[in-house]
Amino acid sequence: MMMRRLADIRCFLLDMDGTFYLGEQLLPGSLDFMRYLSHSGRDYLFLTNNSSRSAVFYAEKLTAMGWPAKPQDILTSGEAACLYLARRHRAARVFLLGTPDLEAEFAAHGFTLTADAPDFVVLGFDKTLTYDKLTTACRLIRAGVPFIATHPDINCPTEDGFIPDCGAMTELIAASTGVRPHIIGKPHRDIIDAVLAKTNCPASATAIVGDRLYTDIATGKNAGITSILVLSGETKAADLGSAAVAPDYIFADLGTLRLALAADDQQEERLPVRG
């Protein structure tokens, strides 16, 4: 894929932790970048693999940090899983391993949450996971019920260190059943298909911005959209030499991305009209 000019990007998909903020701290240049997107008439969507929280939670967090976000500005892997299933079996019966936030998300999309003859078993980042849930899920999967996971992250970073995430729970179920799930979230293409359906922006004018090579940047490569790495989170410059996937662009943070985007826009305005 030929690298697209920044000026041609009309919709930016933004990772949050490590890209827009770090824990509870806003990262430098984040608000300036968002203001420039609005000023230049561009769209955006915050994109997260975390399916334990709702879009409402993230909208409130971003608003408290200074950016007035609405729930429709955020897409979680949980909502992406709902959109994926709705395209295949609207009003399906689902056995869900998830938090109350994820249960509410699935209910709002019209799914029936039940262990009685479900059409799908769906695993999210379930901080309310119990042995009974695991036993029921494994029994259903062994019986042939399709297995879906919202995202593949093995660990979730917290202020107190890593905690087991959806990917670790997936490995437990796969070891017991011999069945691996269809995964929705980054770096898989299904989450970008959900994004494109939600934004109505073509892939050729969409870019993903994030701090992780193996999720954010790999998503761009898998989905054929522009990938932009920021070095404000997990990935450092020293990691790039041995990386299995390379971003289209690299910037220190969203502030320096804003400067490059503005410069590219100015250059675009100076180009002679052809025709």
Automatic annotation (TrEMBL):
SUPFAM superfamilies: HAD-like (SSF56784). InterPro entries: HAD-like_sf, HAD-SF_hydro_IIA, HAD_sf. Signal peptide: none annotated. Keywords: Hydrolase, Magnesium, Metal-binding. The keyword Metal-binding applies. Its cofactor is Mg(2+). Its EC number is 3.1.3.-. It comes from the Bacteria. This is Acid sugar phosphatase. It comes from Anaeroselena agilis.
